[in-house]
Amino acid sequence: MGERYLVTGANGCIGAWTVKLLLDEGCEVVSFDLGADEHRHRLINAGQLPDIEWRQGDITNAADVADVVAGADRIIHLAALQVPFCRDDPPRGAEVNVKGTVNVFEAALAHDVPHLVQASSIAVYGTNNDYSTAVVPVDAPRLPRTLYGVYKTACEDLARIYWRDHGLSSAALRPHTVHGAGRDQGMTSQPTVAVEHAANGQSYTVDYGGTLGFQYAPDIARAFIEASRRPTEAAPAFNLPADTISVRNFLDVVTDITGVELFCGDVGLDLVDEGAADSWTEWVREWSTTPLADAIRESAEIFSNRN
Ligand SMILES: NC(=O)c1ccc[n+]([C@@H]2O[C@H](COP(=O)([O-])OP(=O)(O)OC[C@H]3O[C@@H](n4cnc5c(N)ncnc54)[C@H](O)[C@@H]3O)[C@@H](O)[C@H]2O)c1
Fold first, then answer.
1. Which atom of ligand 1 is nearest to the CA of 80?
2. Engineered SS bond to 142: which of 40, 124, 167, 276, CB 3.0-4.6 Å?
3. Residue 76 CA, ligand 1 centroid: distance in Å
4. Considering only the top CATH level, what class is 4-306?
5. How far is it, in rounded angstroms, from Cα 39 to Cα 42?
6. How many other CB atoms are found less than 10 A from the CB of residue 73?
7. Ligand 1 atom 9, closest CA
8. Which residues pair with 76 in a beta bridge?
9. Measured distance CA(295)–CA(195) in Å, rounded
């Protein structure tokens, strides 16, 4: 057995792909998630459940978190509530996203885990109107438009304090619009829902338009795994490479593959189009991503095989 990886929020979209890739490498994996909802694992593993240790618990419960962190060599912290859930229940959003993250950092300190990676988000920025360049620099002012973005900003900042006060190493990754099998909740999940509909011969309308940074879920999972293995200084946050295209263009690629006509709205979301990812590629040195059409073809295949 290799190193023992703890993945919080492992039943989510990025979590399920992270577990799958770690198992492909022969790593030992512990899943920590609130629910026992396994549907994303089954979807991406041809109906099977991965052979890992399953721990059910609430990230807001410090004792649960300390318990599961004990014995972990690497921590990939993904558990969070997405934009709509934070909007609907701000106190719970703060509890899960901020207090939950504090619990993970405290447990890492208590159990001498030297480094961890946490999920931040492109939502820490404002919109393109807030910045003078089309591609927003990684260290540009964070001007979030949602409570979710405010919570993610707080988590990036608390990581800096854990580095300063305790020398605890961590990195924060800021995905933009993750797509792929298993992406079925959160504000930017609709383009994937469109792929699922099209794979089953049904049309679909994405509520919004504009430009987004599309990132394939297995590529993002690979980024989290890579970052979990790279102790670093001063708790940096990274934007990640993306296919920055309009929702309309994304849907056109889906139509080319499936032959199903798809629709979208005109108004974009309150997100920047693109965050500069050069600090990421410098840090990891070699980085490649799945071409968009290949990614969509894979997703469509997974969705159509399920039925
Ligand atoms: N998917 C994206 O496009 C995207 C973009 C930017 C940032 N992120 C961030 O990446 C991370 C993973 O995203 P995802 O798309 O896999 O999210 P997801 O919503 O699919 O999964 C989140 C998981 O966290 C778990 N969770 C929620 N509350 C919990 C609690 N109290 N205790 C334990 N587990 C709890 C949920 O059960 C779920 O399995 C999140 O932190 C998210 O904010 C995702």
1. 41
2. 124
3. 12
4. alpha beta
5. 5
6. 16
7. 119
8. 7, 117
9. 11
Counting from 1 in the atom list of ligand 1, the atom nearest the Cα of 11 is: 39
Instruction: In whole angstroms, give the CA distance from residue 33 to residue 206.
Output: 29
Query: Which of 20, 34, 88, 146 has the most ligand 1 atoms within 8 A of CB, as the residue to mutate?
Result: 34
Q: What is the pLDDT of residues 228-247, one digit of tens each?
A: 999 999 999 999 999 999 99
CA separation for the pair 300, 194 (Å, rounded): 10
304 pLDDT band, cuts 50/70/90, is very high
- The domain limits of the chain are 4-306
Active site residues: 148
The sign one gets for the Cα dihedral 111, 114, 117, 123 is positive
Chain segment 136-189, per-residue pLDDT in tens: 999 999 999 999 999 999 999 999 999 999 999 999 999 999 999 999 998 899
Atom 28 of ligand 1 has which residue's CA nearest to it?
80
How many angstroms separate the Cα of 249 from the Cα of each of 24, 155, 190, 192, 256? 33, 33, 14, 14, 11
Type of residue numbered 53: E
Q: What would the two tokens of residue 21 be?
A: 């890739």
Ligand 1 pocket test, pick from 7, 8, 13 with the greatest ligand atom count within 8 Å of Cβ, gives 13
